[in-house]
Amino acid sequence: MKKVISALISAVMGISAVIIAPAHAVGETSGIDSVAIFGDSIASGYGLDPEKEYNYGQIIGDYLDCKVENYAVSGDTTFDLLEDVKNLSEEQKNFISGSEVVVISIGGNDLMLYSAKKILAFAADNGFLNEGYTKDNIPENPDISDLTTYISIDAVMDFASTGAAAQLKLGRLLLDLYSNLCFDSGNNENYISKVMIPNITEAVSIIKSLNPDARVIIQSVYQPLQLSPEYMDEKLTGNKAIAAGMVRLRLEAILDDYRTKLAAIEGVEIADILNEFTSLSADKEGIEQGYAYYFTDIQASGEERDFHPNQRGHLAIAAEILDTIGILHDDNGLLTKVYCNLPSADSEIIYPHIALDTYKKVAGNFMLGDVDFNMIINGSDATYALREYTVLGSDGDTLFSSSQKAAADIDKDGIITGSDAQKILSYYTYISSGGKLSMEEFLAPQE
Q1: Residue 271 belongs to some domain of the structure
Q2: What is the pLDDT of residues 387-442, one digit of tens each?
Q3: What is the tally of structural domains in the chain?
Q4: How many Å apart are CA 273 and CA 261, to the nearest integer?
Q5: Which domain holds residue 375?
Q6: Sheet holding 268-271, edge to edge
Q7: Is residue 348 part of a domain?
Q8: Across 49-129, where does the E strand assignment appear?
């Protein structure tokens, strides 16, 4: 078997790519003329290269063939959102009154700013401030950038490494944050329910007063501290890993609570970006920690490190919002273009499970044999199918989403085998030599 696998991989690597025409034509018009977007830096496309990258509003506008006005402002909180909709210009009011959909990305800054104040106070009380700073230097209303300005991360991590007592102290801080953000008992502030949700509710009410028929879609906030196992093994070991795990679990609980409370607002729909970025199937829970590292540059070095969505992240957000809107067609436009032009380094990363299925549902253009969904059937598809077969044969967990399984299951017997990989390679060889038949036609018995 090893010789067969080696031979197949060698053959795969020796053949160049061939682009196949899409399986379906572009769908009919969506019936949506305009979409308005409000929110923060996520919606505004902070961190993207405007010369060659696209924010999710641009992708949505192209897909729906409609006009999009993006009123998002980097740094906006729910307070800012409310002020923005209270002070709309007449031109903005007219646009919203005619928009079938209003999309809102908000809440992340509120949660970070609230947390920053408590974290800075904790750091000052425990000697974790950078040299030259004291508690008196901390602003009354700090922002998230103040965390890196004032706090010595090395000092915090060194403290976390000292053992159980330090972890207990950090655990109390995290519990305090969680309780004050999410619960209405004792002295807890219940900040999400008493401050954030009322701000959003009032903003939605104003939007609905301008356009009662508008669909208001609010994005859940993704969890940015989802790191790859390789990164965790390299950067966070022992007690540091335990401390990082405590932070991650509390943050997930806070964001899940926020998502639940958003969904309870009357007249709104939720685009569940938290679920898309985490991208874990039910049978994967506990095995992996999620994929925010794929949809952001949280693991980059130095100034390149960023928790904002990268191009992959904006693609995933666009697909989830479009799926929530529900007016879908086979796409030959910007959505597919962005996917097909993701950096080549991504070829070594299986696009995360749930997000990939959402993308495929929205993009359409399904082709049997196109395992990585880039509208090309080539050696990479055969390699992916073979790798899946090898992993499953070793009792490993699937690397594929349900859409990838369907694309790789050439003989449609419900399992991925070496035979499926071989058939993909055979078809690839055929089209590389000028063949014009589709995969289905190529596989059909010859009369």
Answers
A1: no
A2: 888 888 887 777 777 778 888 899 888 889 989 999 999 998 988 888 888 888 88
A3: 2
A4: 15
A5: 1-23+366-447
A6: 67-70, 34-39, 101-105, 215-219, 268-271
A7: no
A8: 67-70, 101-105
